[in-house]
Design brief:
This protein is an alpha+beta fold. The protein has 4 domains: 2-254, no CATH class; 264-297, no CATH class; 298-379, 2-Layer Sandwich (Alpha-Beta Plaits), CATH 3.30.70; 383-441, no CATH class. 31% of the residues lie in helices and 31% in strands. It contains 11 helices and 25 strands. The strands form 9 sheets. The protein has a 5-stranded mixed sheet. It has a 4-stranded antiparallel sheet with strand order 20-21-19-22, with helices on one face. A hairpin with a 2-residue loop joins strand 3 and strand 4. Helix 1 (14-22) runs parallel beside helix 5 and helix 4 (108-129) crosses helix 7. It is elongated. The protein starts with a strand and ends with a helix.
């Protein structure tokens, strides 16, 4: 799975995120990106991507030049750059900001993402100021250079096109910051509101490390905040901030595949395939029923497991039921023997990659284990659909599995059991009747 992981050890601001994502582009896409951005406000704004160094690390510093002069600060970016100023003449209302985005020469997809980011900021500002979002007038947030940060990051995400975006817990900094409303604590009320439900920490650096723009971009695009999982990294990008700290003031971005396993070689998978078209062979190419069919792409999931030897069977059963109801792909238990030959239970849960933290928390909460093993694994699946058929015992739901030229069907247990009870006949009688109809119909 193509994954973008953003490391926020020094917080995040719009221009730092833009610099990190910019470094992940190919040279041709970098040129295209700058051309698109510099055509948004011709003769008003120039976006520059310049090499910059922090603590011996080189990356990209994105600068916005307005009317031929570089802004003294990025409007949205607070103390990652300079102290806040009261720029009353640059106030822009929330509806005006959305209308301005709609007029830009960018794709509708980028426009929608940019408006969603500003909606996060607007909602946070309205709560902080105890007013309706339509009455919010962005101060530093409303300037053109801030708009460039938001639109630039949204455009970069579109160009990179990751399947998912993950990020580390966010370092927000400590102390206070001066803004148009006075001196505020770090994180500012708006930033704190945006970062609700996001893991954050203060650290020991005095200053505002995460700005409202950075917070809103992360909140909008990131599907999960987690320590860096196993990633096969293909590219790394560094987006530099303005201020100097004891630690390198940068956002780091990794682009690669979320996988702790190598991609299986052809000999490890059923059938013969090439990168362009995977082929499934029923038997041999010489067989009269030989056919080829495009394989579905491999699906990667996670296997979560733990050993249990100090829970009652009823308690384990409750946990299994809860995990199934929570939407796990599968949950099962296996009898095992542990130290001193004590009987125990191996609990295994299958889930999607982005659901790992939720199911890990459920396992840790509802079982006696204190640790979980996490193993990435590949799977290939048939497509499933359900159809109802009429039998002498009533309607029975049939599960039909298809793919790669394979067709399987099976009567659903609940319907068969209900019909058997109602008609007072053996379960197998109803099952075989439904199965025979399937053979004739499907």
């Amino acid at each position: 799975m193509k994954t973008l992981f953003i490391e926020c050890n020094m917080g995040a601001s719009g221009d730092m995120l833009m610099g990190a994502l910019y470094e992940l582009l190919s040279d041709s896409l970098k040129e295209s990106f700058l051309k698109t951005m510099n055509n948004l406000f011709p003769n008003q704004i120039l976006l520059q991507a310049a090499p910059a160094e922090k603590c011996g690390i080189w990356g990209t510093k994105v600068n916005v030049v307005i009317l031929g002069q570089e802004e003294s600060y990025h409007a949205l970016e607070h103390t990652q750059h300079e102290e806040h100023s009261d720029l009353g003449h640059l106030h822009t209302s929330y509806p005006e900001m959305l209308a301005r985005i709609d007029k830009l020469l960018i794709s509708d997809n980028v426009k929608e993402h940019a408006k969603a980011v500003y909606t996060l900021i607007g909602n946070a500002e309205s709560l902080a100021h105890n007013t309706d979002i339509s009455q919010i007038h962005f101060h530093e947030v409303g300037t053109l250079d801030a708009l460039m940060d938001v639109v630039g990051c949204c455009l970069l995400v579109e160009l990179l096109n990751p399947e998912q975006i993950l990020a580390s817990p966010v370092h927000v900094g400590t102390g206070s910051v001066r803004c148009a409303h006075g001196i505020l604590p770090v994180p500012t009320p708006a930033t704190a509101e945006i970062l609700k439900d996001v893991p954050i920490y203060a650290g020991n650096i005095d200053g505002e490390l995460c700005t409202p723009t950075g917070a809103a971009l992360l909140k909008h695009f990131v599907s999960q905040f987690t320590p860096m999982p196993p990633i096969l990294v293909e590219q790394t990008g560094y987006g530099m901030g303005t201020k100097d700290f004891p630690s390198a003031n940068c956002v780091r971005a990794f682009l690669g595949s979320l996988s702790a396993l190598p991609v299986p070689a052809p000999r490890q998978l059923p059938g013969a395939f090439s990168p362009g078209a995977l082929k499934f062979h029923r038997e041999e190419e010489t067989h009269p029923d030989y056919y080829t069919e495009q394989f579905h792409s491999l699906d990667q999931i996670l296997e979560l497991s733990c050993n249990l030897d100090d829970m009652t069977p009823e308690a384990v059963s409750y946990a299994v039921t809860l995990l199934r109801e929570a939407g796990a792909l599968d949950v099962y238990t296996t009898p095992i023997y542990m130290k001193k030959n004590r009987p125990g239970t191996l609990l295994t849960v299958l889930c999607n990659l982005q659901e790992e933290s939720r199911f890990s928390r459920l396992i840790l909460t509802h079982t006696a284990t204190r640790g979980i093993r996490i193993q990435p694994c590949y799977r290939r699946t048939l497509d499933a659909q359900f159809r109802k058929i009429s039998t002498v015992y009533g309607e029975i739901t049939i599960k039909i599995n298809t793919g790669y030229g394979i067709h399987k069907y099976k009567p659903e247990y609940e319907d068969v059991a209900a019909a058997a009870r109602q008609c007072k006949v053996p379960f197998q009688t109803v099952y075989e009747t439904a199965l025979e109809i399937c053979r004739k119909m499907l």
